Amino acid sequence: MKKRILIVEDNALVREMYRSALKPLGAELLETQRGLLAADIARREQPSLVILDLVLPDISGQEVLKLIKSAPETARIPVLAVTNSATAGDEASLKALGFAGLITKPVNIKAFCDAVAKFVAP
Amino acid sequence: MSGPLPARWTNAIGQREVLLGRDTVQRMAEIYLAELDSVIEAIIAALREGDLATARRAAHHLGANAGSLDFMDLADLAQRVEVCSLHGDQDGALQTLQTSIPIAQRSASLLRNHFGLV
Asked: Which residue in chain A is spatially nearest to B65 when comparing CA positions?
């Protein structure tokens, strides 16, 4: 069965970059620009990974993480935080919140693909 | 814009094209150009209204766009605007944004020249 990745990102340019960068992984990409929709999509689609921007138009990435981790159907899904150093804090703090890891913007494409591949490898 | 494209940026965008494909990078450039003026205007308007949360989000957007196309100077300045907004420094954010406007205009010229966009 094809693996799924849920991308929660409001920036169209960044989504365009993700689509191309992640194509070689062969995973199905699901996308939303709204944090409030992300937990519902995760519950319904059961992705192998969520890639989550921490700065969204409606709610913060940290709040999205809480929604995902507080529901039994989605609590096990790993969530990678994506943000710049102004917002990120340190990776240890994010991991303590429940994130599986941190990808810093501007995204290094190879490092990004390597980080994602760990969660969707066959 | 006149003069040759700066070698560092040309190399960096060339590497992006190798990794992502030229068509993808051109689509990214088109999005960048379509959004640039409105994002800067949104930051200015939000800062003038004292709406620092909106200014912060718009600066975050500008920084992500610029960084994704290897305009690292502009990405750094946008991040400084974001940090100033986060810490309530409205004047600092506005001053930093003013510094970034000519750099943003130059980035647009570089992309138009590189991809032959109008």
From this structure: A13
Query: d(Cα B59, Cα B79) in Å, to the nearest integer?
Result: 7
The whole-angstrom distance between A53's CA and the closest CA on chain B is: 11
Q: What's domain B7-111's architecture?
A: Up-down Bundle (1.20)
Q: Which amino acid is at B104?
A: A
A40, A32 contact by CB (below 8 A): no
Domain boundaries defined on chain B: 7-111
Query: Given an 8 Å threshold on Cβ–Cβ distance, is A106 in contact with B19?
Result: no
Pairing state between β A49-53 and A4-8 = parallel
Q: Where are the domains of chain A?
A: 4-120
- Convert the pLDDT of each residue in B47-104 to its tens digit: 999 999 999 999 999 999 999 999 999 999 999 999 999 999 999 999 999 999 999 9
Just give the CATH number of A4-120: 3.40.50.2300
**Number of neighbouring beta carbons within 10 Å of residue B1:** 10
Nearest to B31 among A12, A19, A106 (CB): A12
Q: What is the pLDDT of residues A62-107, one digit of tens each?
A: 999 999 999 999 999 999 999 886 666 677 888 999 999 999 888 9
3-state secondary structure of A30: strand
pTM of the complete model: 0.92
